[in-house]
Amino acid sequence: MGAVADMIGGVLAGYAINPLITLGAASIGLVGGWLWQTLPSHPAAWPAAPAQCGGGPCGGLYHHQLAGAAHFYGYAWSVLAARVPNALIRTAVNTVLLRLLMENKAVMAAVKKVKKAYGMNYEQAMEYIHAVQWAGHKPGLTRTRTLLAALGDPHKQLRFVHVAGTNGKGSTAAMMASCLQAAGYRVGLYTSPFINRFNERIQINGQQIPDETLVALVEQVKPAADAMEDVPTEFEIITALGMLYFAERHCDIVVLEVGLGGTLDSTNVIDPPECAVITALGMDHVKELGPTIADIAAAKAGIIKPGSPVVSYGGVPEADAVIVRVAKERNAPLTVVDFDKLKFEGGDLDAVTFDFDGLDGVKLPLIGSYQPRNAAVAITALRVLRGDGISRKRPSAPVLKRSAGRAGSSCCGIPRRFCWTAPAMEMEFCSLWREMSSKSLDAAKARPERLYFQ
User: Fold this and answer.
1) What is the pLDDT of residues 129-153, one digit of tens each?
2) Least enclosed by CB within 10 Å: which of 4, 22, 114, 277?
3) Is the pTM of this model over 0.85?
4) Residues near 376 by Cβ (< 8 Å), separated by ≥ 6?
5) Do the beta carbons of residue 218 and residue 208 sit within 8 Å?
6) Strand pairing of 275-278 and 310-312?
């Protein structure tokens, strides 16, 4: 900055830019940056601060004396050279003082107040996120990859379960996230759309991203997004926000719900996931995905990655043929949910009861005969994860085993989230999509329903 200022000043003043002055000005930034990085890790350097503070006036005297002598003897370049040590001394003094100020809690508290007063607030963050729409944007992954690269590729630090489909993908994703959390994992959950607040879309262990954290991430993403020639869309920006949050909080695994389709969805920038899950398929978004069920299946099958296991809902021959073909082409082991092992026993206004593949009398706190089928998909995918050795891939990760749900039962007190845990593989099945009265919530907490995952 000093060098640039020197050049601009030279132009405005009408004299030639002197390389030596420019070199001296540039040295300010170099020395300041070096001190900034070095001094905090060397506490022994702090006692030298008073001496360095005193060095400013000494440097000034040295500068004027040397400059005067050099000028008297006609060595103009020596006069210019005398500016360099003075600049270095003053830079050292300013850097040390600034670091001392930043380590003062009272000073930093005042700075935070000023930043809060003049920085972006939650409403402004939401306005920015929702400002860019799909209109005029060509579908593709280039914008998302460019944005994430500018942010340090946070998604490459994470592991994923990728969930696509037409129906049930949100419920299936929520069930899987809850079960993995019960197993002891730190679980990110990325879903869309939201019911009450935007923050519902980005969660860790059932907790929505805090407002202040979301605002800080938007402030981090905005400069990178605004600098792009092809400005990212709303969903692409949200995807980047989620990836940053999950990476910064060191999630063990992220359950990632596709927004639209699969192949060209912004979530599909990830490397091969631990498991790809394709829920029930139907005719959705035909304008974007195609007019036939085979076209839609091909778009959803875009999340299938080489060597990554796949769990498919199945049941639609034309769509199933596409998924089987893509899985075979990409050497991805395919498991189709066996609904012949599902027995739906009925339900009431609070829950449905079903048996599935050795799990008897499972009560799921969601109404609708289709919900046990979503639960069967989640159970099948979790069994694939366990069989694929998810915990062996990262030695520090928890083991997906029989003691899974013990720590998760407390989430039953969270509004719009209902849980039943078990003492065996103890998986919780939770819903984020339905309001529940305090009366029925209290009743749910009092009931001893259990789900056993052998």
Assistant:
1) 998 765 567 889 999 999 999 999 9
2) 114
3) no
4) 337, 339, 341, 342, 356, 357
5) no
6) parallel
Tokens 């994430």 appear where?
Answer: 148
Which of 212, 224, 199, 204 is closest to 158 using CA atoms? 204
Q: What is the distance of C-alpha 423 from the center of its chain? A: 32
Look at residue 361 and give its three-state secondary structure: strand
Q: Please name which of 296, 297, 232 lies closest in space to residue 269, comparing C-alpha atoms.
A: 232
Quote the CA–CA distance of 431 and 350 in Å, as a whole number. Answer: 12
Whole-number Cα distances in Å, 369 to 30, 288, 340: 67, 30, 15
Beta bridge partners of 280: 167
Contact at 8 Å (CB) between 257 and 270?
A: no
> Could you give the CA distance from residue 406 to residue 233 in angstroms, rounded to a whole number?
41
Cα–Cα dist 200/135, whole Å? 25
DSSP character for 373? H
CB-based contacts of 261, cutoff 8 Å, min separation 6: 164, 285, 288, 289, 296, 299, 300, 302
| Ramachandran category for residue 358: left, alpha or beta (phi over 0 → left; psi -120 to 50 → alpha) | left
The single residue listed with the structure tokens 């519902």 is: 200
Which DSSP string corresponds to 195-257? Answer: SS-GGGGEEETTEEPPHHHHHHHHHHHHHHHHT-SSPPPHHHHHHHHHHHHHHHTT-SEEEEE
What residue type is 133 in one-letter code?
Q
Does the pLDDT value for residue 20 go beyond 90? Answer: no
Residue pointed to by tokens 């974007």: 288
